[in-house]
Every structure is written in C-alpha cells, then in structure tokens.
Specification:
The complex is a heterodimer of chains A (259) and B (332). Chain A is of the alpha/beta class and 259 residues long. Chain A contains 11 helices and 10 strands. In chain A, the strands form 2 sheets. A 6-stranded mixed β-sheet of chain A has the order 6-7-8-3-9-10, with helices on both faces. In chain A, strands 2-1-4-5 form a 4-stranded antiparallel β-sheet, covered by helices on one side. With 332 residues, chain B is an all-alpha fold. Chain B contains 13 helices and 2 strands, in the order H-H-H-H-H-E-H-H-H-E-H-H-H-H-H. Classes of the chains: A alpha/beta (259), B mainly alpha (332). Chains A and B meet through helix 2, helix 3 and helix 4 of A and helix 7 and helix 8 of B.
Chain lengths: 259, 332
C-alpha cells in the first residue's frame, strides 16, 4: 500500500489555543481511515489544514508525493481532495441539481465559465447519476434549502463525489442522522471504497467507525495519540484515558501543581 | 412555454421601439430616456450584486467615470457636436470597467457589510476627486459640445441608444444567469467558502462580474452626460444614484432577471413624472417612502418573487381542487 495523503508534524495555534501540536497522519491509498478523538482534539482543524482552509504554522501536507501545504481550497479540490463539512454546507437558494453542477468543473479555468453554459449533457448525466446513487434524484429540481438535514448530508456527499476526487474527507457523516440513514451512508462508503476511492472520516459514532474503517487514528490535544486497526485502538488504554480523562492529563495537572 | 416567454420579450421590445412616436412632448421623452438609463443601470447592478450577494453601494463612481470620460474626451479630442459623440459611449463604459478593476481588487477582499461600507467610501473618494481636481472643472462642472438637434426631436437618438444599452444589459444578465459563470456567482452568494472548496476561483469570478457590471453603468453615465450637455460632480457622482438602483432591484426582485427591469421602469418613470408635473423635486420621496414600506411589509423579496409564489400557490390549489373533483367519495 502506498501513502496517498500525508500530514507531517502539523502545528497550528489560534491565539493561545494550540489546536494542532505536531500532528501526523497518513492515509493509505484505497483505505478507509478513521480519525477519532474527544471534542476539541483538533480533528476538524486538521481537515481544514489539509483542504487549505487554514494555513498551518508548521508542518507539511503532501498528496501523491507533492507538497500541497498552504494551497488554496480550490487548488486542493482540483488536485483531487474532496471534503464535506461537519455542519453541512450546501447552496440553499439554488436547486439541488445546480448544487451538483457547481462541483463538476474542478480543473476548468475561470475564464471558461464565461463562455460556456451552466452544464453539458455529460455533466447533467453525471450529476443525476450521483444524486440517484445517494437516493435523492427525485428532489433534483427543488431548492436545496428546502431539503431536510439528512438529505443535505447526502447532497453534500453527492456533490463532492461528482467531481471524482481521489480521496474524500468526511467530517461527521453520521452526526445527527438517524440509524437507517447511517447504515445507508456506510453502505455507500463501502461500495465506493471497493471501486478504489480513499476515505478519511472524522466521526464520533464509534460503531460506525469500527465497522467501516481499516485503520483508525486517535487524536488527543492536537496530536496523534494512537494508530491501529479498530480492534487495537479499542483496547488501547491510552485511548480510554483520552476519552474518559485521567492518565496523561492527570499527570500534567500534577506537574503544574508540583511546579 | 419558452417560446411564449420569448414572444413576450419581443412584444415588450416592439412597444419600446414605438414609444418616441407615441410620446411627443420633449419633457416626457426625456423622462423616457432617463428611465431607460436607470433601468439599464439597475439591471446591470443586479447582474453582479443580485447574483453574488455583494451589495455594492458605490456604483455612481462608475456612472460618473463614464460621464466624465464622455465629457473630457469630447472636449479634448474636439469631437464634432454630432451623432459621432455616441462612439464615446462604449469608451465611457470601458473607462468605468478599467476603474472598477482596482476598486474591485480592494473592495472584494471583504464581505457583506464591510463590502457595502467600503464601496460607499470609495464612491466618496471619486466624488471628492471630481470636485477637487482641476481637469474636471470642479464644482463648476464640465460643458460638453451641445449637439444642435431640434428641441422637438432632440431626445429621439438618445432614446434608441439608451434602449440598445438596456437590451444589452438584459441580454448580458440573462446570458450570465445561464452560464457556468453565473452559477458560480450564485454559489458565492449562498456560501462563498464552500464554493471555493468545490474548485470555484471565487476572486477572479467576483472581479469579472464587478467589472462587467461597471461597463454598462459607465456607458449609461456617458450617454447621460452627452444628453445633458453639462455635468456636475454632485449630479453624476450622486449617492442617491447608488441607493436608487439598489432600491429598484430590491423593489422588483433582487437577484431575478425581471426584477430590476420592473423596478427601474416603475420607480424611475414615476419619480421623473412627479418631479416634472409638480415641479417639486422631493415629492417622490414621500411616495417612495410609503411604497417601500408596503413592499418591505408585504413582499420583502420584491414584486417578481411575490407574484411567482402567488401564482405557484394558485396553480397548486387548482390542481388540488381538480384532483379532489376527480376523486369523489373518499370520505363517503
């Protein structure tokens, strides 16, 4: 297996808060990698660094061997890294289908947009195909703002997929979604993974993560704590400490108390 | 359905072509020209601000730039006082577009409310420059070569040029709405960061839209200057202009194709008519106040959206009623 996406020793502080502290993560090509950790452990910040929304203070991000540290989000997307957001972000006042079309042009020059129509036949077909894949094709003509929360999650997944990225970063795909839909989403991810898509998933739903991931990295206080198979991670005492408190945190408190 | 729509546009254009034959009073013809100019500006403004959500309140900077380009070039290039001056109208548009690029490079770095404030500030810089620079003639204004057409028919050529600019503005706005570029503007309006993350090069897209909108507004300013024969900084760099065209778009339907056209035709013609008929320059403000209160209270998204929603609801009701008629005895 080769490493497709790699973040090395990423450091990022927001004011006095050290969101990421020498965090490293490798995503193998063709894998489903899980990223878990308590709230505030830096998972979303790592996503933002990888996709260009946040510039790291130090560290490098490489994709297929080339350095993409600090590249703009549109560039990162054009290279083949797609992502969804924890709080779903769709274009509310245009139709579901138009939402899909926004994403179909990842390598096109911006000047081209002036002279071409909104969509070509093949783009429309691809858009409808992916909407059908996630099961919301019948809603294509509706304004996206009228979709329910779960449908928005599916739309966001669909319009990331329509651009055919090599790796897809999902930020809490199962958050706030009912059980049936969670199962549906994990089936879709499995099916796509079989076709060769790589996934990096942040998720709090442990069952979901343990079922679907080949490898899981646990983050704690802005750094990667443990990496292993779901079974290894589940039984690791450090992970339990990170989630339940005590351990390391307790030590550092004692250190402070002892001066 | 599409064909019916096109026929309606053609019918509207046909009527517009005959307006100068119907309206013979020069004062009213002037109202017609100014109405077309403002409608074109509102349409063009909406093509950027309405689609992208970046509400610019400094477009008079481009209107004034167009007007002064016409004035200064006509004077310095010794353009004969004739129809030849119309060639300077697109030049005025180009000048406005060139000015819009650095303005956009600064203003488009910030969003929403900050953008509004920055555009207003930049507008005042332009107004102050026009007042204080020597070459603009200062507050005394600039006198253009006056085209010696007969008073009776003086406004007819201006009317047709203004109509051509309006048609251009509408066609451009419609084309943008159908293009990939337009879709990108709409995506920027709804969520700019998400659009960036889906590969939309947001900054060049915004800047292009901003400059395109300035082009038409600059042409309008140039045409206005030529028609008036005399321009003053406070009239072509007028803050009321900024607010007017924005209000026209809001009144008719912000971000829709038809909205600013309706808003411009209704508001500007009634404003000019009231001013001319009652020789009272501020009467319209009272009426506008009432009108806007009504719009904000009862149709905050503008006339077009309101009517569309009302129509859809009516269709749905009728469909439901006919279904109910077809399926009797469900309860019996």
């Amino acid at each position: 297996m080769t490493t497709l996406l790699s973040a090395q020793s990423i450091t990022k502080a927001f004011g006095g808060v050290q969101a990421l502290n020498l965090c490293s993560l490798d995503v193998e090509k063709g894998s489903v990698t899980g990223l878990i950790g308590p709230n505030g452990s830096g998972k979303t910040t790592l996503f933002n660094v990888v996709t260009g929304y946040v510039k790291p203070d130090a560290g490098t991000v490489t994709f297929e061997g080339s350095d993409i540290t600090g590249a703009r989000p549109n560039k990162v997307f054009a290279m083949g890294i797609g992502r969804t957001f924890q709080l779903t972000r769709i274009f509310g006042r245009i139709s579901v289908l138009e939402n899909m079309l926004v994403a179909t042009q990842r390598e096109e020059s911006w000047l081209r947009g002036l002279t071409r129509s909104m969509s070509s036949k093949s783009e429309l077909d691809a858009a409808m195909e992916w909407l059908d894949f996630v099961g919301i094709a019948r809603l294509a003509k509706l304004p996206a703002g009228s979709l329910s929360y779960g449908q928005r999650k599916l739309l966001e997944l669909a319009y990331v997929l329509v651009a055919d990225p090599d790796v897809i970063l999902l930020d809490e795909p199962a958050g706030g979604v009912n059980l049936t839909l969670i199962n549906e989403i994990s089936q879709k991810i499995r099916a796509l993974n079989k076709e060769g898509k790589t996934f990096l998933i942040v998720e709090h739903n442990m069952e979901f993560v343990m079922n679907i991931c080949d490898s899981v990295t646990v983050m704690h206080q802005g750094a990667n704590l443990v990496t292993g198979t779901p079974a290894e991670v589940r039984s690791n005492p450090l992970v339990l400490d990170a989630y339940l408190g005590g351990g390391e945190e307790q030590d550092s408190i004692e250190e402070v108390a002892n001066g | 359905m599409l064909q019916k729509k096109n026929l309606l546009w053609l019918a509207a254009l046909a009527i517009a072509l005959f307006v100068p034959s119907i309206i013979t009073n020069p004062a009213y013809r002037q109202i017609a020209v100014i109405t077309l100019i403002f409608t074109a500006c509102a349409t063009s403004w909406n093509m950027f601000s309405g689609y992208s959500g970046y509400v610019a309140l400094g477009s008079a900077a481009f209107y004034g730039t167009g007007a002064y380009t016409m004035g200064l070039l006509a004077v310095h290039w010794h353009v004969p006082a004739s129809g030849d001056m119309f060639w300077l109208v697109p030049v005025g548009g180009l000048a406005a577009m060139l000015v819009a690029i650095p303005v956009g490079l600064i203003a488009l770095r910030v969003r929403r409310h900050t953008f509004v404030v920055i555009t207003i500030a930049i507008f005042f810089v332009f107004q102050l420059a026009a007042i204080n620079f020597g070459f603009t003639g200062g507050t005394g204004g600039l006198t253009l070569p006056y085209v010696p057409w007969l008073i009776q028919d003086y406004h007819i050529p201006f009317y047709y040029v203004a109509l051509a600019i309006l048609v251009f503005a509408i066609a451009l706005s419609a084309a943008v709405r159908r293009s990939r570029f337009g879709l990108q503007l709409l995506a920027i309006r709804d969520d700019e960061d998400r659009a960036l993350g889906l590969g939309v090069k947001v900054f060049p897209v915004k800047l292009t839209g901003f400059a395109m909108s300035a082009f038409t507004i600059g042409m309008c300013g140039a045409l206005y200057a030529m028609m008036q024969g005399q321009i003053y900084p406070q009239f072509v760099f007028d803050p009321i202009f900024d607010i007017s065209i924005a209000l026209m778009a809001f009144f008719g339907g912000f971000g829709t194709l038809l909205g600013p056209i309706l808003g411009g035709l209704i508001l500007e013609s009634s404003q000019q008519y009231l001013t001319v008929s009652y020789s009272n320059g501020s009467l319209y403000l009272i009426l506008f106040g009432v009108l806007f209160l009504l719009v904000v209270l009862f149709m905050p998204q503008g006339i077009v959206v309101y009517v569309k929603e009302w129509w859809t609801k009516r269709q749905d009701r009728m469909a439901a009623a006919s279904e109910a008629a077809l399926a009797p005895g469900i309860n019996s």
